[in-house]
Specification:
The protein is mainly alpha-helical and about 150 residues long. It has a single domain, classed as Winged helix-like DNA-binding domain superfamily/Winged helix DNA-binding domain (Arc Repressor Mutant, subunit A, Orthogonal Bundle), CATH 1.10.10.10. It has a two-stranded antiparallel sheet. Strand 1 and strand 2 form a beta hairpin. Helix 3 crosses helix 4. The longest helix has 30 residues.
Length: about 150
Amino acid sequence: MIPWNTSRLAALFDDVVRVEIELWDAVDARLRSETGLTVGRFQVMRVIGSGEGLRVQDIAATMAVTVGGISKLVDRIEAAGHCVRTPHPADRRSSLIEMTPAGRQVLDAAEASAGEELNRLLDGALPPGGLDEFAAALATLRDVIIERNPR
């Protein structure tokens, strides 16, 4: 087995980033075509749709991105009629964000489109059980990186 030196790790990093970009671009194109959503909006809507009464900072923390970036995306999602902000009952400085029925419809359609596209791209790409092993390895790596690089 070849040792994992700096150049091999750099090549691994490049491959991981390229895989992410290829997946992102393919799913983004499909979502734009079928639902009018970008992957960025879709990802935020998935978080909003998974809980009740989330604040912008909750969404940002879940996605490991900045509050400012999420706030702008939520503004766009709200302007499209896919979510609403209501005053937070205990904190006058923040709002709670919830999906609208129209947003739920678009999200459901986007979930189906994204799932079909991911299945098209990934089904059979690895030997049997390979995708499960890859997913487990990614989850482990993510957890270790978060532990080693706290925000």
